[in-house]
Write a structure and sequence with these properties.
- By secondary structure, the chain is an all-alpha fold.
- It folds into two domains: about 45 residues, Arc Repressor Mutant, subunit A (Orthogonal Bundle); about 130 residues.
- The chain is about 75% helix and about 0% strand.
- It has nine helices and no strands.
- Helix 1 packs across helix 2, helix 4 packs across helix 7 and helix 6 crosses helix 9.
- The radius of gyration is 19 Å and the shape is elongated.
- The termini are far apart.
Length: about 200
């Protein structure tokens, strides 16, 4: 097993990620091979496999690292799901989706599906963590928190994704207003009916 903190390991991982990102801009995910990535990164295939099991593991690592870098500090430490937290999650998700589709070719359906699934899981977990600390929801059992988190995540992710797909990428303030109102009103209705 490689030492993840070794500067050489970090540099090699960075070379692999840069090579992969460059290849994604030129060809679809399905047609990228480990050989392509290794050649572009100027490493051998064995070195690639010392760092990643396959290109799916590489994609997952890139997705997770990029998404985690975009999380605002206030969201990370939030103890309640309020208007500000909701707005930051919407904008963060939207910004991630925009950056992803600018990096990858839009015709890469398989990569889009993989990334969508990973981001949804991470977003849902983040929302679930906030709900479990929020006094309004913390009295609920874990199943209810999971379900409310899943619905909230779906609303945020779907709104951000649809906004980009409909070509509205130049007016995120309208997205924010629409999605935030929808999510917060839904949560308010839920909490009022269960008080």
């Amino acid at each position: 097993m490689v030492n993840q903190e070794d500067p050489r390991v970090l540099r090699t991982r960075q070379l692999i990620k840069e090579a992969f990102s460059a290849l994604l801009q030129k060809k679809g995910f399905d047609s990228i091979t480990i050989k392509d990535i290794a050649e572009r990164a100027s490493i051998n295939r064995a070195t690639f496999y010392a760092h990643y099991e396959d290109k799916y593991a590489l994609l997952e690592d890139i997705t997770e690292v990029a998404f985690n870098k975009m999380i605002p500090e206030k969201v990370l430490h939030s103890k309640e799901f309020n208007d500000e937290t909701c707005s930051q999650l919407i904008l963060m998700t939207y910004d991630y989706i925009v950056s992803f589709y600018k990096t990858c070719r839009l015709d890469s359906k398989s990569i889009a599906t993989l990334v969508d699934e990973k981001i949804r899981k991470m977003l849902q977990q983040m929302i679930e963590n906030i709900f479990s600390k929020d006094a309004t929801f913390s009295t609920l059992d874990n199943l209810n928190i999971k379900i409310i988190s899943a619905m909230t995540c779906s609303a945020i992710y779907s709104a951000a994704y649809s906004w980009l797909k409909e070509g509205k990428d130049n007016s995120p303030d309208l997205l924010l207003d629409l999605a935030s109102t929808y999510v917060m009103k839904g949560l308010e209705l839920y909490s009022n009916s269960h008080s």
